[in-house]
Structures are given as structure tokens and as C-alpha cells.
């Protein structure tokens, strides 16, 4: 089994379940081209009605039959999974769905302590699928209320301070990048992630390292190619397998007078046994505290 954590939620799944679609607040898991599970979530302010959300879900899935699943019709393994979740403080409601060529089980979950509302749907093709789906459902975790929030996706794992929000992400062959954002806004002011003053926290992964670093040093490659890294010699400390920096970027006199400096702290290192380069950098109008940044770097690795 393997664990997936993304933007505040976590699941433990069979090793061959892989993300086939990924959004900020949702993902689809599949085995090859066969969909197995879809998860969507958001924070709901105020009360939560399972009946209203199931009705809304039914309207959005025309051609699919959806109905609440009474306790008398709930399979034993599924009922046990729901019971385990309820023991953790979650409220849960189960439903059955049937679409063209697909049958499935679903659950709507709500955590009154955090406001997190989750829609979990599983594609069921037989008893074995039902048993596995029940086991996966029982593993669901709400990570939104901790001091740090884990993310584990596509073989990478890290922990991020909970006041950062997920901004952008890209998982392309050779280069993975996940970016978080901490706004420096006035109390009550809301801006989209990445907008206004604040600091971006970026995780990078490059592989294979032997290809990226062929004929060059790690420092030269980082300063020439890595978006967000300072130019060579500008406050960089480097060794054979690690590059670090902590600088205030050069800017205009006016920006300095207005205290609009850009702080940039980063670390890039080689993971030899994985033939991979990992990097973390924090850049913006807020200086990342050294202890916090070091903790983030230490949490970042390959699983």
C-alpha cells in the first residue's frame, strides 16, 4: 500500500493506483486506463446537508442514478469503513450510484472541526473492488488542522506550514514542481494564491540528474537553469552535491525605501542513489525564517 497526500487530504491505496487527473482540490486514481476512485473536497462554512449535496451531485451527473444507501443495504466492509471514519470525528453519508457501464459506491464526508467536505466515489466491478474500496475509504485523513500539512505525490513527500496555500503544480517528465503561497495581506483581505505581496515556496525535482548535470557543476547548472535561483556568486554557498543561498535580491532605490525588498532563500541537493536533484526555495516580500525553512527542506524527499 502507498499513501497519497494532497492539499490537506490523505488516502492509503494499493501500489498500482496512480493519479490520472490532478487538481488543487481533487484527483482521480486509476490502474492504467481504468478509473478506480475520484475524490473532491472543499471547505464549507456553516452547516452541511448530505441530502442537499447528494441532490446537487445528482443534477450534475445526468444519466446517472444516485440514491442514499440505507444501513440495511450497506455492505459490511463499507459499513465498517464508514464506522472507522466516524470514530475519528467525521460525519459520513453513503450513497449508491449507477451510470452507463459503471456502478459504484460513494461517501460524503464532513469534518465539523475544520469545515472540510469531501466527496469520495469508487468504481465497483465486483466484491474484490468493494473490499479494496472500503479499505481505501477507511484510510481517509483530514490534515488541514495541523501546524504542517503533508503532501505526497508521484514519489515525492514534504511537509508545508499550514498557513501556506497550494498555488501551482506541474508533473512533467524530467521536472516536477509544486508551489505554495503565503500572502502578506491585511487582516480580512483575500487575494488569489500568488497575487499581491507574499512569499512563494517552491519544491523542484529534476531527474535523471546524470543527464541534467552532464559536463557541468551543480552550482553552474542551478544558476543557469533553475527558475528562482540567484545568479552565480550572488550569495551562493556550494559544495559538490549541495548549493545554498540566502540573499536580498538587488532592486531599485525606491523599492528599498518603500521596503519592497525581495528575499530569496534556497537549497538544492543531489540524491545519488535516486539519480535525482531536489530543490526548495522561498522567494518574496517576506523572509523565510531559517529554522522553518530548514525544517521544510529536511521533510522533502523521495518515497
From TrEMBL:
This is Uncharacterized protein.
